[in-house]
Amino acid sequence: MTAMAAPAVLSLRPAMKEDRSRLANLLHFETHVHRHLDWRQPLDWLGRDPYFVLESGDRLNAALACPPDPPGVAWVRIFAVATRLDPAEAWASLWPQTREHLVELEAESVAAIPLQDWFLKILAKSRFQHVHNVVVLDWRGKEKAAKDAQPVIRRMKEFDLEGVYEVDRAAFAPLWQNSLEAVEMAFEQAGYATLIEDEGQTVAYQISTRSSQGLHLARLATNPQHQGRGLATALVKDLQAQAGRNLDRLTVNTQDINTPSLALYKKLGFKFTGERFPVYQNQVI
């Protein structure tokens, strides 16, 4: 009679920079991989806490990263599991230590946008609550924007980023705010970024990325003290003109509970694509 092999002993530890190549393999070749959609690549989070891995011997079995950025705002940036391990088992090993670390870092909550059903089920069983959805709209240049009087719009420059960050922080709820580092990375990856000033101060901006699909409006914000002046409308119309010249599709994501944003995009000819992504949130503190 053949003896059964003993189950592999899993050990949990913080991820290290030396794990980069094995993490890259885990992220690129495994099926159960969640990546948060942000300006950083998954491996860019190495060196930031909490970022834990599960291993058995020299085999990397799973990884979970939830570094707060900005401070107090945490998203599940990465959760990846090798096929030899059950994803729910991996989460049960990684999540308690990660949550404890987030408490130490005084992150009030952690959120995730599960794009796959297997991860959604894990979150739902871990006291993550479905709080709203991110919906996708697009504009294909069929409707021409009216040529109203426009404020002065100029291209964003690197020296503007501090002011852009201040607008971002004032305009968004904490969960959706960008750190200055994230604003800098967004600018570096932008295909088209513009802003509006008032007395030399940035009061509204947009950052869009370019791909084979066209332009994507990744970020649009107006300082609350300057809302109601049509600044966001002007920025989007300018972006539509940019997209129209290149026959680009223009897409945007927003929350389904963000009534002002939905009204703005509908007024400017955007249509729902039918794509919808749930946002789950867990109160850590």
Average pLDDT works out at 93
Shape: elongated
How many individual helices? 7
Quick one: CATH class of the largest domain?
Answer: Alpha Beta
Question: How much β-strand is present in the residues?
Answer: 25-35%
Question: What is the CATH topology descriptor of the largest domain?
Answer: Aminopeptidase
> How big is the Rg?
21 Å
Name the helicity range.
25-40%
Tally the beta strands.
14
In angstroms, what separates the terminal alpha carbons?
A: 53 Å
Attribute tags:
285 residues, alpha+beta, Aminopeptidase, 2 domains, five-stranded antiparallel sheet, 14 strands, 32% strand, elongated, disordered N terminus
How would you describe the overall organization of this protein?
- This protein is α+β, with helices and mostly antiparallel strands.
- It folds into 2 domains: 11-126, Gcn5-related N-acetyltransferase (GNAT) (Aminopeptidase), CATH 3.40.630.30; 135-278, Aminopeptidase (3-Layer(aba) Sandwich).
- It has helices at 20-29, 87-104, 117-124, 161-171, 180-189, 231-245, 259-267, and strands at 11-14, 32-35, 51-56, 59-65, 73-75, 78-81, 109-112, 129-139, 154-155, 192-198, 201-211, 214-222, 249-255, 271-283.
- β3 (51-56) and β4 form a beta hairpin.
- The model is unreliable at 2-7 (pLDDT under 50).
